[in-house]
Amino acid sequence: MARNGHADGQGIWHRLRGGRSNRCWRVEGPAGDVVVKLYREVLAEPARNPMFGNDPRAETSMLRALARSRLAPELLAAGRCGAGSCIVYRHVEGRPGGATLSESAAALRRVHEMTPAAGLRRAPDGSAQIHAQGLGILARCTDRGGVERLMDLAPKGEVRPKGEACLLHGDPVPANMIAAAKGVVLIDWQYPGRGDPCEDLAIHLSPAMRHAYASPRLSSEEEEDFLAAYGRKEVTDRYRALAPWYHWRMAAYCLWRTGQGGTDDAPAMSAELEALALCGE
């Protein structure tokens, strides 16, 4: 950091909390505070995350692509050091998780209106592909009783693929949205993609993800306010139709995390299953 001019060797490093995959610090720099993000190295199966990737190259590319959009922080450096892969970006003054529902919805719509770069992962499209991803997650779970329970709860019917190819953030939980002076800035771009915008809406609204990041769970009225603020009826109607599969897949993910030693994933799974049950009412 000092050699590349991003810190003077005397600045204080403040460990940032909230991320579940990587380590981040806010560092006092000569030209203002910066954030240093050190990536956890890619793990071998079965520990590799089946739903959320962690690719420093993808995040670096996205920060460069979004440099003039004000939707992402300003990238200052990227590469490897003795401790592993890392990036450095300018610290964004604001409140993580402080965006209102309408501000969050507007920010996601702006993301989805951008043209995705070639080579990004393709997100599941339609109920059959979401279901198939959920089955792949369950195949890696060790709690056979939990697996059988979720197999019995799998949604029925079909919502066909739409073929839309929007830019996706991949992990737009409220904690990854910073309410800054000039608008919402999204951080943690290590799992971008292209595909159905409903994928991002599902992650943002997920009761399990909100539990994991200590964000307030939304009431049904608040969820409807968010969808109305997003402002694309054809997308939000499609999200409502796909919601049972999204809740079921997330419950499967929580079951896998529990098997990996996650201590807060059992209540997160219960919250997701409650939302799934409400879909049938």
Nutshell version of this structure?
Helices cover 40% and strands 17% of the residues.
User: What's the number of helices?
Assistant: 9
Helix % is 25-40%
Question: What sort of overall outline do the alpha carbons produce when their principal axes are compared?
Answer: globular
The description of the largest β-sheet is: 5 strands, antiparallel
Rg from alpha-carbon coordinates: 19 Å
Instruction: Assign the structural class, choosing from mainly alpha, mainly beta, alpha/beta, alpha+beta, or little secondary structure.
Output: alpha+beta
Strand order of the largest sheet: 1-2-3-5-4
Low-confidence stretches: none
Q: Number of DSSP strands?
A: 11
SSE layout:
Layout: E1 13-16, E2 23-27, E3 34-38, H1 56-65, E4 75-81, E5 84-90, E6 94-96, H2 101-112, E7 121-122, H3 127-138, H4 144-153, E8 166-168, E9 177-180, E10 183-186, E11 193-195, H5 198-205, H6 207-212, H7 220-230, H8 233-259, H9 265-279
Parallel strand pairs: 7-11
Antiparallel strand pairs: 1-2, 2-3, 3-5, 4-5, 6-9, 8-11, 9-10
Helix pairs in contact: 2-7, 3-8, 4-8, 5-8, 8-9
